[in-house]
């Protein structure tokens, strides 16, 4: 006897995701501009098609059943893949507006993003670009969901399995950075900086481990940091306006954005090197626009590497 699966409809998947994200049939119906009975019918039909109850209904709202929670992960991924397919068709046919979404950590954004984006906007003016920043653990959920095309940042400190492709596209050197008015800006050794105020930066998602490793490599105990900052603009403001030290990629002092604000402390200890990697989902190829933007970013990184060997 042949086994058949009743096909799900696009609007059913959309409706289920809306209900799961809002936790309420009423709120979901309002967000979708639907009548609540229409939405309820759509969810019931989806449950019948799947042969499982997806949501628990009560006077306080709705909650996902175990089956619903499992299906939500797949539903969101499928929905984002279909949206990406729509973007790709728009890009190839040049009809409608498409989107590229990327995650870029601090150092790569300082040396390549502006120039790459300037060229990209001239060549693909109809593509809307969304840029997010942060350490890798903060952008990983969006990569998993498919809402980010790719991310560029320090190599993840944990394995990603076969779900993602990871490749090195740049290497950065970590140096001690301070303001141009810092009283220790001319220090010659790391030992002279032991009693200074340090701020942790979290590009890899393990800022304390990264910081302590730098000091221990030179036979020193790491001083207790006074704060932690993971956002580029806030960190720039803190370093430029306070007597703070930070362990940062050398792009922070070589970038035109920070020119005149920050400098490298010329200590004799050898700096550490970090790989900057491209990460994207292995199950889906990049859209034409995402591939082109990545090509432009790589070109800018290559130019920077040749200019600052």
TrEMBL record:
<dbReference type="GO" id="GO:0003677">
    <property type="term" value="F:DNA binding"/>
</dbReference>
<keyword id="KW-0238">DNA-binding</keyword>
<protein>
    <submittedName>
        <fullName>LysR family transcriptional regulator</fullName>
    </submittedName>
</protein>
<feature type="domain" description="HTH lysR-type">
    <location>
        <begin position="8"/>
        <end position="65"/>
    </location>
</feature>
<dbReference type="GO" id="GO:0005829">
    <property type="term" value="C:cytosol"/>
</dbReference>
<dbReference type="Pfam" id="PF00126">
    <property type="entry name" value="HTH_1"/>
</dbReference>
<dbReference type="InterPro" id="IPR050950">
    <property type="entry name" value="HTH-type_LysR_regulators"/>
</dbReference>
<keyword id="KW-0805">Transcription regulation</keyword>
<dbReference type="InterPro" id="IPR005119">
    <property type="entry name" value="LysR_subst-bd"/>
</dbReference>
<keyword id="KW-0804">Transcription</keyword>
<dbReference type="Pfam" id="PF03466">
    <property type="entry name" value="LysR_substrate"/>
</dbReference>
<comment type="similarity">
    <text>Belongs to the LysR transcriptional regulatory family.</text>
</comment>
<dbReference type="GO" id="GO:0003700">
    <property type="term" value="F:DNA-binding transcription factor activity"/>
</dbReference>
<dbReference type="InterPro" id="IPR036388">
    <property type="entry name" value="WH-like_DNA-bd_sf"/>
</dbReference>
<dbReference type="InterPro" id="IPR036390">
    <property type="entry name" value="WH_DNA-bd_sf"/>
</dbReference>
<dbReference type="InterPro" id="IPR000847">
    <property type="entry name" value="LysR_HTH_N"/>
</dbReference>
């Amino acid at each position: 006897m042949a086994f058949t699966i009743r096909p799900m409809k696009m609007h059913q998947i959309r409706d289920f995701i809306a209900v799961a994200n809002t936790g309420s049939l009423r709120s979901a119906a309002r967000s979708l501009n639907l009548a609540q009975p229409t939405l309820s019918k759509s969810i019931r039909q989806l449950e019948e098609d799947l042969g499982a109850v997806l949501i628990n209904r009560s006077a306080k709202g709705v909650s996902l059943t175990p089956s619903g929670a499992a299906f939500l992960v797949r539903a969101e991924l499928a929905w984002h893949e279909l949206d990406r397919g729509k973007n790709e068709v728009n890009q190839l046919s040049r009809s409608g507006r498409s989107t590229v979404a990327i995650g870029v950590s601090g150092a790569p954004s300082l040396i390549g993003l502006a120039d790459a984006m300037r060229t990209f906007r001239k060549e693909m003016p109809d593509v809307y670009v969304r840029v997010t920043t942060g350490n890798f653990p903060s952008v990983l959920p969006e990569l998993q969901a498919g809402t980010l095309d790719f991310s560029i940042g320090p190599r993840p400190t944990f394995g990603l399995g076969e779900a993602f492709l990871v490749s090195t596209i740049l290497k950065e050197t970590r140096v001690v950075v301070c303001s141009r008015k810092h009283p220790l800006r001319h220090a010659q050794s790391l030992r002279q900086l032991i009693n200074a105020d340090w701020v942790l930066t979290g590009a890899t998602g393990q800022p304390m481990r990264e910081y302590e490793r730098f000091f221990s490599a030179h036979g020193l105990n790491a001083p207790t940091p006074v704060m932690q900052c993971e956002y580029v603009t806030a960190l720039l403001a803190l370093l430029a306006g306070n007597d703070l030290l930070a362990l940062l990629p050398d792009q922070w002092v070589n970038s035109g954005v920070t020119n005149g604000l920050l400098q490298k402390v010329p200590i004799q200890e050898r700096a550490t090197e970090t790989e900057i990697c491209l990460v994207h989902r292995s199950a889906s190829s990049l859209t034409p626009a995402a591939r082109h933007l990545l090509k432009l970013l790589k070109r800018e990184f290559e130019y920077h590497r040749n200019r600052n060997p």
